[in-house]
Specification:
Length: 487
């Protein structure tokens, strides 16, 4: 007998798909919300793939209702990354099939990026889209709270599977992104938005604290520093309010976070639990003072990713082949005890725990350059939108969304330094959102330029007509007969 959860999801898909064909934007919002529901808890048969069904429905609805096709340079770079991974998959070091399958997954994510770029085409829709990402994860906060608040040992961090990911660092990244979205709306939104934003800021900061994630703390600190810098440079009452708000949040954060979680930062240079003698980790003189989590990352970067890149600097070892090849390079398999590598014995290794190192190792320069360029280009586009000066009533909300997106990107970049996130769905749809923000800003600038040109043309015509009228009046006065008696 099917579970109630499966029946609920089946009913949701049955309703959402027709709506998506008719109103593809709302289908995209449903797709975003569905991402945060973990599919394997529904006890679904293999053929039941609600996300795929909904994605197809959104695509059909977009094509049927297509009025204008939107494209952006970020989309071009994404296409280059995907074509590169796809075309070089047969050169993969360990498994060409795995590399091809990974490239197919990237293609699906880029399609959703394209949907976002085209369907989230007004500041009002962008606001709904960003809130959908905040509210979509709320369902999962219960798992975080139950795990984090009912445990007796503060050293046990929340490390549960939620959404379509899982783990402390993944949860913390989502929390930092949600904070970036909510903080700006708390400052600049309507009264109702501010109330919701305040509640969500508290809920997500508590969840981040419970994860005990070092990457999460660094991410939220980087986002907070960005907002603090903008508030200090703002020089307005609202900017002063931003400084005060960040100060209060910072004090609350450090008041509630367990000292044991902050102490984990010392584990980067000072061991909290010595590596076991049977571990495959390098615990020589340079590593003996680090905890296993920190040391394993360094091994995966220095002994894994960099040699893989140097071995194949152009095309890399192939998409998703890092895990297959890493035991040979770093000397241990993926396991809690870091089981030492045995030559000739196959086994999966860890991911690189760094988006940047893993992309460099798996894609080489051919894919790493356009992928990294997407990040720099996105920051540049958002900065350009924030510099726009216009009387258009939409520009205030659009600038606010550019600030939100910058915070999102900062959180992603910091978190991705310590996690492999190239195949995380929301990275790609946020890139589509950034491209859309840029296009909307460009459209406002072009509209302003058209209005100025039209005003200048109208003024020139009026001046010409006035000049012609003056000339005609002057000519008429010269040719008119002299009045009687003038002699």
């Amino acid at each position: 007998m099917p579970s109630l959860r499966l029946i609920a999801m089946a009913l949701f898909v049955a309703v959402a798909c027709p709506i998506s064909v008719r109103r593809p934007f709302y289908g995209l919002i449903a797709l975003v919300a569905m991402y945060y529901f973990r599919p394997d808890v529904w006890d679904a048969p293999g053929w039941f793939r609600p996300q795929l069904f909904l994605t197809l429905a959104v695509g059909i609805g977009w094509l049927v209702n297509l009025k204008a096709f939107r494209w952006d340079a970020l989309m071009s770079l994404a296409a280059f990354v995907i074509v590169g991974f796809m075309s070089t998959s047969f050169l993969a070091e360990d498994d060409a099939g795995v590399a091809f399958d990974g490239a197919v997954i990237l293609t699906k994510l880029a399609i959703v990026m394209l949907f976002t770029l085209n369907l989230v085409d007004t500041p009002a829709r962008m606001n709904v889209f960003l809130w959908a990402n905040v509210l979509g994860f709320v369902y999962n906060l219960k798992s975080v709270y139950v795990t984090g608040l009912t445990g007796n040992d503060v050293n046990v961090r929340v490390d549960v599977g939620v959404g379509q990911g899982g783990g402390a660092n993944y949860i913390a990244m989502i929390c930092a992104i949600a904070f970036a979205i909510c903080f700006v709306r708390f400052q600049e939104g309507s009264r109702k938005e501010r109330l919701w934003a305040a509640a969500m800021i508290g809920a997500y900061l508590l969840a981040l604290v419970l994860t005990g994630s070092r990457a999460g703390i660094l991410s939220i600190a980087a986002v907070g520093a960005y907002f603090l810098g903008r508030s200090i440079l703002g020089g307005s009452k609202k900017a002063v309010g931003g400084v005060v708000t960040l100060g209060v949040l910072g004090l609350l954060f450090f008041a509630v976070i367990p000292a044991e979680h902050l102490a984990r930062f010392r584990g980067i240079t000072q061991s909290q639990s010595n590596a076991s003698s049977g571990s495959g980790l390098d615990i020589g003189s340079s590593a003996a003072t680090r905890d296993n989590s920190a040391q394993s990352r360094i091994d995966l970067w220095v002994n894994g990713a960099i040699p893989m890149f140097l071995h194949r600097p152009i095309s890399g070892v192939g998409m998703d082949n890092y895990q297959l090849a890493s035991p040979r390079y770093v000397g241990f398999y993926a396991s809690k005890n870091y089981a030492p590598y045995v030559p000739g014995v196959k086994g999966r290794g860890f991911v690189a725990h760094s988006t940047w190192f893993q992309t460099l190792a798996e894609g080489g320069l051919l894919m790493a350059i356009p992928f990294f360029a997407m990040i720099f280009l996105a920051f540049g586009k958002l900065a350009a939108v924030r510099r726009i000066k216009s009387a258009d009533p939409r520009i205030a909300l659009l600038k606010s969304q550019a600030t939100q997106a910058t915070g999102i990107l900062i959180a992603f970049c910091v978190a991705s330094t310590f996690g492999s996130h190239i195949k995380i769905d929301f990275y790609w749809w946020y890139m589509g959102a950034i491209g859309s923000i840029s296009l909307m800003g460009r459209r406002i600038v072009q509209a302003d330029a058209s209005r100025r040109l039209e005003a200048a043309r109208t003024a020139a015509i009026a001046a010409r007509e006035s000049r012609l009228a003056a000339q005609a009046s002057d000519a008429s006065s010269r040719t008119s007969p002299a009045p009687v008696g003038a002699h």
